[in-house]
Amino acid sequence: MSQRRKCKKKKAPIQQLPVINPHVAGIDLGATIHYVCGPATEGDTANIRDFGTTTPELLKIADWLKGQQVTSVAMESTGVYWIPLFEVLDQAGFDVHLVNARQLHNVPGRKTDCQDCQWIQLLHSCGLLRKSFRPADEICRIRELTRAASELVQLRSQAVLHMQKALDQMNVLVHRALSDITGTTGQAIIRAIVGGERDPEVLAKLRDPRCKKSVDQIAEYLTGNWRDEHLFNLRQALARFDMFDRQIEDYASELRSKLESMVPEDRDDEAPPPHPKPNKLKAIVRAGDDALRDVLYRFSGIDLTVIDGISVKAGQTILSEVGPDISAFPDENHFVSWLRLCPNKPITGGRVKNGKSRNGHGSNRIATALRMGALTLNRADCALGAEFRRIARRHDRRVAIMAVARHMAKLVYRMLRYGQAYVDIGAEAYESQRAQMQKDRIQRQATRLGYELVPIPTEP
Fold this sequence. Notes:
The chain is of the alpha/beta class. Helices cover 53% and strands 7% of the residues.
């Protein structure tokens, strides 16, 4: 109550600017109270009300804004407090602008919640606030599930590290003998250890026939001290791994059912076209992602896995973050800029400041997936792989990862926006094109300087 009494003392508007749309409101969000500034009343007095954060209070906000003839609302993206109010106002028919907090910072003067909501309303009425991208409501539902599943994957990886730590403390070097303890052989050995087996020869015989190391080579690593506390830690870490694995499977099943419900009727039984890379298709089937690939194709109408470096999970991340309709981005450069994959070099006095490229203070999940995909193209026999190696030779791997990820983002935009097919010309053709471009550039420079290039005849 004391906060509300202090708020009512501040009623004067901040300043006067040319108003484009007077029927707007600004909201300053909080954990326990929301401050709403509507259009100015008679006498140019600030029109401020405060509400609680419960659902009945949020509905009161929508009713009050309708009574003030408000058509558009702007709010700052503060934590997760904006989500319930955003959904209520969006369902009520308001044009809700979710604003980046960086557009509202560095305001001079004393900062209070009342002044914040006034400032947001003033900037919004003058058309100075840019609306953040937010996909359609059905895409947001999928996005929430995908993000929660990705968090579970991170927690499962921590459980794997805990298993490795317990094995190290017992000097049972399963993760040294095998490349992955979550594989068939690694899981069989760890579960046998938890079940009570201690004989290294018996444990080594649990190896998969496809394992490269022999039984004797694996048995050499499987002799330890078998202390009770370390075995208990291993048992608990394995239980956490199984729990997260089950939850991830539940999320995957729920996501597939959600995507199936959003498939258009004309693509209900449509299968994706033949994959241009048979080896990549075999890897997708081996990983068990072929069913998810079919669902994503029916949902979006395109197959993003045809782009080198993009897996089925990366395609799911892209579609769950932006959806199949990306017309909100005018062109591919806007899309790349939103992903923070474009170079941002501050220039002052005609020189690049500090010689460093700044790409903002963060990035989103699509950019992370594309950078991971670009990293896998280091040795790939494709045009994108050749581009990666060419840039890495001239600069370094970090520059190559960003550049190739930017190229992949443009390919994704063209496929989603225009349905443009991706055709890999191959590494050899790419190198040939780059050599021809270099030759033409040198020819133009020589002609401009008044010289003529003469090819050197090669010996038979």
